[in-house]
Write a structure and sequence with these properties.
Helix content: 25-40%
Order of helices and strands: EEEEEEHEHEEEHHHHH
Shape: globular
CATH superfamily of the largest domain: LON domain-like
Radius of gyration: 19 Å
CATH class of the largest domain: Mainly Beta
Largest sheet: 5 strands, mixed, barrel
CATH topology of the largest domain: Archaeosine Trna-guanine Transglycosylase, Chain: A, domain 4
CATH architecture of the largest domain: Roll
Strand content: 25-35%
Amino acid sequence: MIQWRLDHFCDHLASVMPHTLTVDFSRPIRLFPLAQCILLPHATVPLHIFEQRFRAMTKDALDADGLIAMATFDGDDYQVDYEGTPPIRPSVCVGYVVHHERLYDGRYNILLQGIARATIQEECELSPGGYRTAILRPAETSVMELDLEDQRKCLDELLRDEHLQQLACIRNIRNWFSPDLSTPVVIDLAWQAISRDSEQRYAVLAEPCVFKRFESLQHHLLRTRKTLAMAQQMGSCTSETGLPLN
């Protein structure tokens, strides 16, 4: 049994509703595989649940521990075998249903918050409801906040940069940057906010080392800053990655 301190976020903004959540990795956890939806720990994603098997998955989660692990398909086999068990990538994000709405016809709208990186150790037989489950193992390297002092200072300076501050997502991240949020949390929330590339997000999810996640974030922000500075000199309205400057 492993415990996390769970802080609820809505649209990546902290709302102070902390409590302790227990995840039992010795038991199968529900899998929800999608093509490109990558959830990172501490961030949230709204989901509309309409397929019968995933309605059963959601109901079972709500009746039990509220846990659903977001997974992503490996390759394109899902396009021809979606109703079966097409391959999925090993890295997943265990999420907790922080809000749900059951519609009159049995569909659900849910808000799933990521709480932990994990790796699929072994897939189990299909559940009675027809959805997939697996035995997972935690995939996060534990680091004390004190050891991230230099990284936090560097990130603070980057988020204050006048060029990066032109981006709304950077201003939002800056607003989240408070002593209440640990550096690993800020790094994951930052990635969820600035990246729309599913491959990039998956690489962040699959990286257990927070120092490496910080290095890649730092590199991304510095490259974005350079692009914004050049665009400002040239009078462009967007960055080379298509990010609006206002």
